[in-house]
Design brief:
Strands 1-2-3-4-5-6-7-8-9-10-11-12-13-14 form a 14-stranded antiparallel beta sheet, covered by helices on one side. It is of the alpha+beta class. The protein has 3 domains: 44 residues; 70 residues; 97 residues, Outer Surface Protein A, domain 3, CATH 3.90.930.1. It is 24% helix and 38% strand.
Length: 220
């Protein structure tokens, strides 16, 4: 009788242990599921970030860019390795602009647009005036080249008065002009006075002096 009682107790103990293991396994699975869900919720990126400035940093903590917004302008600025400005996209009530600089922070290109004009300029390092620019406004469209002294040398464009190509000297004085209408082609002295044009012999002195005023002014 005792042996049956002992055997029965052992069977109940084994069943109890199996039930306990099953319960513990279920609790462990639930705990793992909760941790996974919690980690997933924590690592999910927010859909909206509300801030006036966001600073971008690399793994070493160096500032590499800014996303900003103020009352006057808003946009994105990126920095070179030395901390100087490399590129910028700026929006404002007055105009919108893209600025590109070299690795030393010198502005090399700018593109601007407003309600009245679009402007693209290319600069050499350290220059305050562009060496190449394209402008489009109500007057027309023009392309111009400047020398290293920032003096206009070649201007090509189409204005409300017609098309024209002007070539200037180192002082900025127009020395030759070719137009799609009017005089057609003319040469000028360094003092600005008219020198020569096709059909010169048929022009009176008064007409010669008036020729310079007929040279179309390109858009600025």
């Amino acid at each position: 009788m005792a042996s049956f009682e002992i055997s029965d107790r052992l069977d109940r103990l084994e069943r109890s242990n199996r039930n306990l293991k099953t319960a513990l396994s279920g609790c462990l699975c639930c705990a793992v599921a909760v941790m996974v869900i919690g980690a997933s919720a924590t690592t999910t990126a927010p859909k909206v970030i509300d801030a006036e400035k966001i600073i971008l940093r690399d793994a070493a903590g160096n500032e590499r860019g800014q996303l900003f917004a103020s009352e006057n302008s808003w946009g994105l600025v990126l920095f070179n390795k030395n901390g100087s400005k490399a590129a910028a996209l700026v929006v404002s009530p007055a105009l919108n602009a893209i600025l590109l600089s070299d690795q030393n922070g010198n502005v090399r290109q700018t593109v601007t647009s407003d309600l009245n004009e679009s402007h693209w300029s290319v600069f050499r390092p350290g220059s305050d005036t562009s060496q190449f620019e394209v402008v489009d406004n109500a007057q027309g469209t023009a392309l111009s080249f400047h020398d290293r002294a920032n003096t206009p040398q070649v201007e090509l464009g189409v204005s409300t008065k017609g098309s024209a190509l002007n070539i200037s000297d180192s002082q900025g004085a127009i020395r030759a002009s070719m137009t799609g209408q009017g005089i057609g082609f003319a040469l000028f002295a360094n003092d600005g006075k008219f020198q020569w044009a096709p059909g010169l012999d048929n022009l009176s002195p008064e007409e010669r002096e008036k020729i310079k005023a007929l040279v179309p002014k390109l858009p600025k």
